[in-house]
Write a structure and sequence with these properties.
Layout: E1 2-6, E2 9-12, E3 17-24, E4 30-36, E5 43-48, E6 55-57, E7 65-70, E8 75-80, E9 89-96, E10 107-110, E11 114-119
């Protein structure tokens, strides 16, 4: 599966952004978002089952971020609200054949990343 992420940008703390990830190829697959801040390891943000019926979140984003998908458009979204400076990172979408996982090693396909910068 090929993935193309977009939607990053510069936003003030407390603001919102919506990231999109368009998939091509095999699209009936679980998807997730990860992020990597400068000098830090890549970390799990959220994931969604292929049907959209199950979602998973990192504790750091619960209640602020929402993952969703539109299978008719082969697109997964990450709605990010109440953004904080510590959310600043490159955000990557990824695909996995292992339902319910949050381990980056289980995600076999990755998009190119989109930069989110949150100013204080």
């Amino acid at each position: 599966v090929q993935l193309q992420a977009s939607g990053g940008g510069l936003v003030q703390a407390g603001g919102s952004l919506r990231l999109s990830c368009v998939a091509s190829g095999r699209t009936s697959i679980d998807m997730g978002w990860f992020r990597q801040a400068p000098g830090k390891e890549r970390e799990f943000v959220a994931a969604i089952s292929w049907s959209g019926g199950n979602t998973y979140y990192a504790d750091s984003v619960k209640g602020r971020f929402t993952i969703s998908r539109d299978n008719a458009k082969n697109t997964v979204y990450l709605q990010m609200n109440s953004l904080k400076p510590e959310d600043t990172a490159v955000y990557y979408c990824a695909a996995t054949v292992k339902p319910g996982t949050d381990r980056s090693v289980d995600f076999g396909s990755w998009g190119q990343g989109t930069l989110v910068t949150v100013s204080s």
